[in-house]
Amino acid sequence: xxxxxxxxxDRLHPEAxxxxxxxxxxxxxxxxxxxxxxxxxxxGHRKGAERVKEIVRCAPDLGIxxxxxxxxxxxxxxxxxxxxxxxMSIFARYIEREADRLAAESVRMRFIGDRSRLDPRLQRxxxxxxxxTAPFSxxxxxxxxxxxxxDELTRAVRAIAQxxxxxxxxxxxxxxxxxxxxxxxxxxxxxxxVIRTSGETRTSNFLPxxxxxxxxxxxxxxxPDFTPAELAQIVSRFGNRERxxxxxxxx
Length: 251
Description:
Elements: H1 3-12, E1 22-26, H2 30-36, H3 41-58, E2 66-73, H4 81-104, E3 107-112, H5 120-133, E4 139-147, H6 149-165, H7 176-181, E5 193-196, E6 215-218, H8 228-239
Parallel strand pairs: 1-2, 1-5, 2-4, 3-4, 5-6
């Protein structure tokens, strides 16, 4: 087999041992974890934030270069005012307390989602840590706040429609690549692996476009109990999967 034929075969039949370079996590179960223990739901969210720190620390050692976590969805505004305000406070505190450590460990932090509804102070903190950690690349940590996949696609389509209406592009110019370039994740690779904790087996409007070819893992573990060891096991299982992207398995 010549070099060109080998390259083509590798594209059709990716090696099973390739790492999960981009892992996306739906961090579910914080409230239930606290309720089961007779504690307020916000205690579970604070514990969940502590778990994020541990997962961020271990991710690079597992071959993960991009880690995207679902922190607050566009539907989460339906929760009680107390819980929503508490969550926003936890987000702000995480940014303030973790900024130095993230920079010291060469972690780049950025956010996806519609920021317009967020508190102005939180928006400033988000912009500040994005600017501060922009030079780093050991791990790319992306946090989805006020994010919803359908909302993201709607915003992208609206922007493209405006460009067509203004004559800057033609309708025939709209391609998969153009749509991807208008999404919040334009600078990120698509996820290789999506994990959801807490036993639910739905994706809840998380990265519907980007995860079209991702592998999925659903674990019954509640997020505050999700350990680096469990993440390592899931990533190891991913390494044994053959991702064919519509091709045919090798004989």
